[in-house]
Amino acid sequence: MSFWNDFTDACQADADFAEENSSLIFLISGIALGVAAAAVAVVEGKKVTEKLEEKHEAEKELDEEISKPVQVATDIVAAAPCYWGALVLGAGAIFCLVKSYNINMGQIATLGAALSVAEKKNREYDIYRQKVREAVGKNQEEKIKHEVTKEEVRRDPPPKSFLECDESDGKMRMKNLNTGSYFRSTPQDIRRVETIITHRCYTQEYTKLSEFLYELDVNDRSDAADVYGWPMGSFPDISFEPVLLDDGVTTITGVRFFRDEDEIIGNILKGYGSY
């Protein structure tokens, strides 16, 4: 059973890799097919030259005079079968390159639309969070947030294998409260990566949460990880909170990623724009 699970996991990982890198795969395939088509054309070209020379020699031995147009037409008919392989490879190369371009354009359009929606939702959430804190106070807001976290975990409990994992390596069981995924890490590693991402936020136009998780060696395939992030000039603000599971005994650590609220929310409330 363990072998079968490992096999299915490996197949799923390969399928996910192919889906995530389909554009690159088509691009590399197109280039490879183009090179192969050129190589076949060169090799077959030499054969065609020899074949046409033999054909012309045979035509000279005939008593009938062949006109130039007829000779050209018969040469094309004689040479065409030699280039079928190159033509098929060339057509495959064109298809792969066009497919790669279309996938790229589709991904760019999808990401642009997703970022636009995410920015609007994030702005609304940032303002809402600030208003709740102003209305009920910071302590009460923290209690509300904790209850929301408990409900999130209740609706999406961790898998049994996650709860039974060996913690002798010092890594804690955690839940990403932004994406809903479970992972293992340490607060020290998260703070270390926070420093890396903070520096990156000063040079990149937009730094995604998935980049943060990648630096943690966490494989999170959720769409939220690729949408949520930090625009240039802002930086991560991370909170840790204990989460008690339904058994009333087991506690894991919830990790929530924010933008720097003093800068972001302050600018929004002052009317300085989105970020």
Radius of gyration: 31 Å
Beta-strand residue percentage? 5-15%
Unreliable parts? 261-275
Structural class: alpha+beta
Helix and strand string, N-terminal first? HHHHHHEEHEHHEEEH
* N-to-C CA distance: 51 Å
Largest beta sheet: strand ordering: 2-1-6-5
**Average residue pLDDT:** 75
Domain count: the total is 2
Number of DSSP strands? 6
Helix run count: 10
Shape: elongated
**Relative helix content:** 55-70%
Outline the biggest β-sheet: 4 strands, mixed
How would you characterize the overall build of this protein?
The chain has helices at residues 2-20, 22-60, 68-79, 84-136, 138-155, 160-163, 187-201, 209-215, 223-227, 261-269; strands spanning 172-176, 182-185, 206-208, 229-231, 236-244, 251-259. It folds into 2 domains: 2-112; 137-269, no CATH class. The strands form 2 sheets. Strands 2-1-6-5 form a 4-stranded mixed sheet, with helices on both faces. With 275 residues, it is of the alpha+beta class. Strand 1 and strand 2 form a beta hairpin.
